[in-house]
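Entry 12.
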Amino acid sequence: MTKAKFLMGKIDYINASPIYYGLDHGLVPNWIEMIEGPPAVLNSMIKKGELEISPISSAFYAMNHKELLILPDLSISSQGEVLSVILMTNYPIEELDGKTIILTQDSATSSALVRLIAIQKGIRPNFITGKLRTLQDIQKKIDAAMIIGDAAMTQPWEKKFRYRIDLGKLWYETTGLPFVFALWVVRKESAISRYNDVKDALELFYESRNQGYTHIDNVIESGAKRLGLDNSYVRRYFELLHCNLDELKIKGLEYFFLSLYENSLLPEKVDINFWSCNR
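Predicted 3D structure (tokens):
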């Protein structure tokens, strides 16, 4: 009997390349189908039940924590500077009160983080949301723009803005904690109905990541070629990015979720629940 396809999401930025290296190089079995997209698309697909497992924005997990379980020891996170999550602005943050900030439509986490920072700084900007992949996407008078992913590193945003603020660095300087931008999750329904497949898929992710870090020079070279960046810059990028989820990162995640709740950016407190191989 042929096994039903098991649908898994894949971020279409280079930040997850170490995790997907092995899967991109022959580890994917014929019962798994990979679906590629930006975080916002993958968020929507897992919400609709169109994926069993996917990386998603950590804030999106917070908004849907009753329907999802976090897969252990997988994330996109940083302990300080991250390079690919930035606020480009013509004013210091403290002077953005009443100014217009455009938030990328591609990430729930980074948008939530900017809104949280505004509240903590005591400012009330005018937030709008839109596509932010190239410099040409900013057509009107915008005072600041929050940009993520490959576009943050490849586009000449300084042509329109005076300051580049790395949000991973700002968070770390403010809290002393790592910031978790993305998590890998499984739908609770899938965790029950396809338990063995989830277990096998998780082992594939771990093996794929091991291969990625074993072949990190290949990951760097591929990322640099794709983005048209120097190998040295991409190497630094992957040195700053973390793809695990240890206790300190979980603590940072808990603090982020609690801060969102306490500042009325989430309607309820978030339970952080992990998938377990022990039923």
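Annotation: The chain is about 40% helix and 25% strand. The CA atoms of residues 6 and 17 lie 21 Å apart.
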